[in-house]
Design a protein that fits this description.
The chain has 377 residues and is of the alpha/beta class. Helix content is 30%, strand content 15%. It folds into 2 domains: 114 residues, no CATH class; 241 residues, Rossmann fold (3-Layer(aba) Sandwich). Helix 11 links the parallel strand 13 and strand 14.
Length: 377
């Protein structure tokens, strides 16, 4: 563990090996979401969270104690850990169970945290990256049309249901399985409109329903927009042959083609031309790797970096839809009122103000632990 501040630098050996860290991270993630819809919810282990904080950050805690912002460069299993959910203090056993999470000493309470893909990327962003030349503030895509024209789905739930491979028949995507397996997301329309208003954009910059297509995304001059927002379902890569890669779900065409099957895959994203200061992926598990067991940020996130996004807002677990609305709109509203606080701090404050008990039967009933995390750059 290296910690570098304006005043000092500290180097300490972490007292855990790779396997021990991996096991600890896996244990904590089981408390953040349920791997299957029918699984019995597991309580988030506050004690284990504090133990991991003590091992990872404890050795350099004195150097960063008074710092309000952290730039973290994780490796290995730590790329799938949202550092925000680490406990900075040992949980008080005297606190009644109903108050344990509300009163817990989350790292998120004290510090705005940004995750960097590498140390070198910080210098690249600060020294070599050019300022955006985009002239338009915002474009958003969401509320995808999943049923065939003229048909409606009354189901609403979390933004991501099954692994990507569940919707493939061999190497070909099964569109009909997508239609029946993915619920509608009508509240994403309100989310995108609210963000557009905060950024001074118009409803014309919000592409919803039948307009939110892969074809339109690829045809739009996206380099003209400083913020790009996708509020939809996220599908994580699975163990299948052929086109196994993560994707964002857009409107499913009545007649899929090789150019537009409704899925904005990582390979398609990487070919986009962006000049965005911020790409918002308000969907499930968008920080996940490009294949099972891969390091985080190697899937959708890396594709957006390749395309030209300077920073991302992504999620580390399945996102309940109403929670995502509160957290994302809260972050942009905070930036509008206080432009100088920065994206990571705006998101941190949004968690404090807008955290909800997420429902939808997705195992997200963890107060203060829902929503897109964190801001990545």
């Amino acid at each position: 563990m290296f910690a570098v501040t304006r005043e000092t630098s500290v180097w300490q050996q972490i007292p855990l090996g790779n396997k021990a860290i991996s096991d600890q991270v896996s244990k904590l993630r089981l408390g953040l979401f349920d791997p299957t819809p029918d699984a019995t919810p597991k309580p988030f282990d506050l004690d284990a969270s504090f133990d991991l904080y003590s091992a990872l950050i404890g050795p350099v805690e004195s150097a960063i104690a008074k710092k309000p912002k952290l730039l973290v460069v994780p490796t290995g299993a730590l790329t799938s850990l949202p550092f925000h959910v680490l406990m900075t203090k040992k949980p008080d056993p005297a606190v009644v169970p109903d108050d344990r999470y509300r009163l817990a000493a989350w790292l998120l309470n004290d510090k705005a945290t940004t995750v960097l893909p590498s140390v070198a990327s910080l210098r690249a962003l600060r020294v070599f990256a050019k300022s955006s030349r985009a002239t338009k503030p915002f474009i958003g895509f969401g509320d995808p049309q999943l049923q065939r024209s003229g048909r409606e789905s009354k189901r609403t739930a979390a933004r991501g249901v099954q692994p990507y491979g569940s919707y493939y028949n061999g190497s070909v995507v099964d569109i009909e399985r997508l239609r029946t397996g993915l619920p509608a997301l009508p509240d994403t329309a309100d989310e995108l409109r609210a963000v557009a208003r905060d950024l001074g954009a118009t409803d014309d910059d919000v592409k919803l329903g039948a307009a939110a297509t892969v074809t339109l995304v690829r045809a739009t001059p996206l380099e003209q927009y400083r913020v790009i927002d996708f509020a939809t379902h996220g599908l994580v890569a699975g163990e299948v042959s052929g086109l196994s890669e993560p994707a964002l779900v857009l409107s499913l065409p009545d007649k899929p083609t090789a150019e537009d099957d409704g899925l904005l895959t990582a390979s398609r994203i990487a070919k986009l031309n962006l000049d965005a200061d911020w790409a918002v992926l308000s969907a499930c598990n968008t920080a996940a790797g490009d294949k099972p067991g891969a390091e985080g940020l190697s899937g959708l996130a890396r594709a957006f970096f390749y395309a030209g996004a300077r920073s991302l807002l992504v999620s580390y677990w399945p996102v309940e839809s109403s929670a995502a609305v509160k957290l994302t709109t809260g972050a942009f509203a905070g930036l509008r009122k206080n432009p100088g606080i920065g994206r990571a701090e705006a998101l941190r404050r949004s968690h404090g103000l807008g955290a909800v008990r997420a429902g939808g039967g997705r195992g997200l009933e963890r107060p203060g632990l829902t929503g897109p995390l964190p801001c990545l750059s």
